[in-house]
């Protein structure tokens, strides 16, 4: 499963204390009753936008990578893992490696991919100042992470 969340879709929700913009969370509200697993925030107060991940370390391990202008390559999502791709500056194209879909990301957009089977995603950044942050979330206690939007 994959989901694209546009920068303006969340209505400017901010994190208490930091003022960073909440881009995505699992779950996205306490009213759901599901246990909290992770939150991705975008801090735009510094000279460059920065992505921060707050996660339940007993349940999830994570790795974060930043890609910049002109990069073209593939992202490997292992079975049961989640990828959180956040547009920071400029534009980036995410696409199924050999598949029928592609989506353009802009600053503040988030693209989330999950599933039981491994998957390869192509990432292509526009030349110039384009930048994205890619966070890989892997389960510690289960075989598959599920995202509850």
3D structure, described in words:
The chain contains no helices and twelve strands. The N and C termini lie close together (12 Å). The strands form three sheets. It has a five-stranded antiparallel β-sheet, with no helix packed on it. With 149 residues, it is mainly β. The chain has a single domain, classed as Jelly Rolls (Sandwich). The mean pLDDT is 87.
Concise account of the structure shown:
By secondary structure, this protein is mainly beta.
Query: What is the CA–CA distance across the termini?
Result: 12 Å
CATH topology: Jelly Rolls
Looking at this structure, what is the CATH superfamily? Jelly Rolls
Q: What is the count of structural domains?
A: 1
Second rung of CATH, namely the architecture? Sandwich
N-to-C SSE series?
EEEEEEEEEEEE
Spatial order of strands in the largest sheet: 1-10-7-12-5
Q: What is the CATH C level class, in words? A: Mainly Beta
What is the 3D shape?
Answer: globular
Strand content: over 45%
Helices, by number, come to 0
Q: Radius of gyration from the CA trace?
A: 15 Å
* Whole-number mean pLDDT: 87
Q: Helix- and strand-based class?
A: mainly beta
Biggest sheet, in brief?
A: 5 strands, antiparallel
Low-confidence stretches: none
Helical residue percent band: under 10%
User: How many DSSP-defined strands?
Assistant: 12
Protein name: HutD protein
Organism: Crystallibacter crystallopoietes
């Amino acid at each position: 499963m994959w989901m694209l969340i546009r920068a303006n879709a969340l209505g400017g929700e901010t994190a208490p204390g930091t003022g960073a913009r909440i881009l995505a969370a699992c779950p996205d509200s306490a009213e759901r009753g599901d246990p909290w697993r992770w939150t991705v925030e975008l801090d735009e107060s510094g000279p460059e936008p920065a992505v921060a991940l707050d996660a339940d370390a007993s349940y999830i391990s994570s790795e974060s990578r930043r890609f910049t202008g002109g990069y073209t390559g593939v992202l490997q999502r292992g079975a049961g893992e989640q990828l959180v791709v956040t547009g920071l500056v400029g534009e980036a194209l995410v696409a199924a490696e050999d598949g029928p879909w592609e989506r353009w990301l802009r600053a503040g957009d988030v693209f989330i991919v999950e599933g039981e089977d491994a998957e390869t995603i192509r990432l292509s950044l526009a030349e110039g100042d384009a930048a994205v942050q890619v966070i890989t979330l892997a389960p510690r206690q289960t075989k598959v992470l599920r995202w509850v939007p």
